[in-house]
Amino acid sequence: LLLNLTKWVFAVKDKVECVHLEEVLVNVRAFVRSDFQNCIMENVSQVLKADSGATSRGTVKHLGVLPFVSKFPRLVARFEVAVGTFVDAVPDDRRDRMVREGPVAYTREVTDEGYTALIDAMFQTLEKAAATDQKVVHSQRFLFENYLFFRSRVEAFAEGNATLTAYCDTAGARAEQALVRYVQETLQWSAFW
Question: Is 139 within 8 Å of 130 (Cβ atoms)?
Fold first, then answer.
């Protein structure tokens, strides 16, 4: 909806006979953007509340990939497919301009803000949940599984999106660090046997 509204705003822009229509479309687009941002904030608060459920046990030993991490790639897929479908429908001679300064650029800005808020909350919740487990082995395995899952599933959509690429790189680095710490801890404990 946001992409289509933005497309129409740019279509009627600077046309004298459409001044009132442009004003209405801009107002509706602002309302839809606000509604989208409220939806993102609700999801962020749900992710942060999930932290209390994961940490109430005091261990992450039996936790695998958390639900909000496993559902995020579907959200990304829906956003990226919508933007990609729109870009593909634009004639080649106008495509660069639409991506740089048109409806695609506006929509990309809004979705990237949403991605940033959600991913920051997810990563913060993962770290908090892992910190509750007293055994480093369990917490590092938990972090490794979640960060690796995130990177492997979101990486396919990150091409051409600097925000997603940066978060995939961060998740990859954190997964690698967690794996190293997991192996070190496992080797340290195996010395007692």
Answer: yes
